[in-house]
């Protein structure tokens, strides 16, 4: 009997472990990884059209951080895949019909393109630069922060009910946009209120910066 109970207990632990081990990274985070590998070359780190290949391509440096704002997801899908882009009308249409913007329909899945769009939206709305490496931040967040802040950063980690706390929802872009990178760094390094621990001495400065960048990409 004891063996059965123990294995049920172990199974429960194992499944709980799986849930955290396979945390789904947020779309903008996935999109950024794709952007860095496939788009940055022409469009530049911040989306301003100043990538190292831009000059060679003779690109009119369109600033994605502003143009994308007025474009719907459907239009962006057409622009990125190239599928149906001829049906796009209005401003800057001529740029889009040129061959310089590659057609990515064979390269990415629909989910990947949606992640790319999420990252382009992030570039258009975030007031803050990504100060550290979000890939590193993702790992540290799952290791130290998700117990309270939640696997997805929504502030609903398993500790919240146990100790009765309500951390802020890091997926809310309006709330997080109001906080500067320094505000976030300070809360992490020095702690905040009674239950946000101070991580000084536990997490290095560059890893704190990585966490801040990851938190920015949680915005939905
Ligand atoms: C070889 C260079 C090159 C690469 C790589 C590239 N683009 Fe482009 N892209 C262009 C050019 C040229 C245009 C048209 C001129 C402009 O608007 O910048 C363009 C336009 C766009 C636009 C439309 C901008 C507007 O008017 O709203 C979007 C969105 C876009 N690209 C997204 C992407 C994404 C996402 C990737 C990566 C998957 C990517 N591009 C990779 C060259 C490139
Ligand atoms: C024991 C639970 C707990 C853990 C673990 C925890 N936090 Fe927090 N965190 C909180 C609570 C509660 C708050 C809200 C504090 C307040 O406003 O009084 C908070 C606030 C914050 C804030 C400030 C946001 C604001 O309102 O200014 C940031 C940033 C933050 N946490 C990041 C992290 C990061 C990154 C980690 C992991 C390294 C982490 N937290 C781990 C509970 C936790």
> Which stretches are low in confidence, meaning pLDDT under 50 for 5 or more residues running?
none
Write the element-wise H/E pattern from the N-terminal end onward.
HHHHHHHHHHHHH
Largest sheet: none
- Counted up, domains total 2
| Rounded radius of gyration (Å) | 21 Å
Q: Hey, roughly how much beta strand do the residues contain?
A: under 5%
Tell me the overall shape: elongated
Give me the count of strands: 0
How far apart are the termini? 47 Å
Give the CATH class of the largest domain: Mainly Alpha
CATH third-tier fold name of the largest domain:
Cytochrome Bc1 Complex, Chain D, domain 2
Bound molecules: heme C
Number of H/I helices: 13
Task: Please estimate the helix content.
Answer: 55-70%
CATH architecture verdict of the largest domain: Orthogonal Bundle
**Category by helix and strand content:** mainly alpha
Mean pLDDT: 88
Task: Summarize this structure as a short list of keywords or feature phrases.
220 residues, Cytochrome Bc1 Complex, Chain D, domain 2, binds heme C, mainly alpha, 2 domains
Descriptive account of the structure:
The chain has 2 domains: 27-125, Cytochrome Bc1 Complex, Chain D, domain 2 (Orthogonal Bundle); 134-217, Cytochrome c-like domain (Cytochrome Bc1 Complex, Chain D, domain 2), CATH 1.10.760. It contains 13 helices and no strands. It has helices spanning 2-21, 27-38, 40-43, 54-57, 64-67, 73-81, 93-97, 110-125, 134-149, 158-163, 173-177, 181-190, 205-217. The protein has 220 residues and is mainly α. The radius of gyration is 21 Å and the shape is elongated. The structure holds heme C (2 copies).
């Amino acid at each position: 009997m004891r063996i059965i109970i123990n294995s049920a207990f172990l199974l429960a632990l194992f499944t709980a472990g799986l849930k955290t081990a396979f945390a789904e990274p947020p779309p903008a985070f996935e999109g950024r990884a794709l952007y860095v590998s496939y788009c940055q070359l022409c469009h530049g780190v911040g989306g301003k059209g100043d990538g190292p290949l831009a000059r060679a391509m003779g690109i009119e440096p369109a600033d994605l951080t502003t143009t994308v704002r007025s474009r719907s997801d459907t239009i962006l899908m057409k622009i990125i895949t190239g599928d149906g882009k001829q049906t796009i009308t209005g401003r800057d249409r001529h740029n889009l019909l040129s061959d310089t913007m590659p057609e990515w329909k064979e390269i990415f899945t629909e989910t990947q393109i949606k992640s790319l769009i999420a990252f382009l939206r992030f570039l258009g709305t975030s007031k803050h630069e990504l100060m550290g490496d979000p890939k590193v931040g993702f790992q540290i967040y799952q290791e130290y922060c998700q117990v309270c802040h939640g696997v997805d950063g929504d502030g609903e980690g398993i500790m919240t009910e146990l100790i009765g706390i309500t951390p802020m929802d890091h997926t809310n872009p309006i709330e997080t946009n109001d906080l500067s990178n320094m505000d976030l760094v300070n809360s992490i390094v020095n702690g905040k209120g009674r239950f946000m621990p101070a991580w000084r001495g536990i997490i290095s400065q560059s890893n704190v910066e990585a966490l801040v960048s990851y938190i920015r990409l949680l915005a939905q």
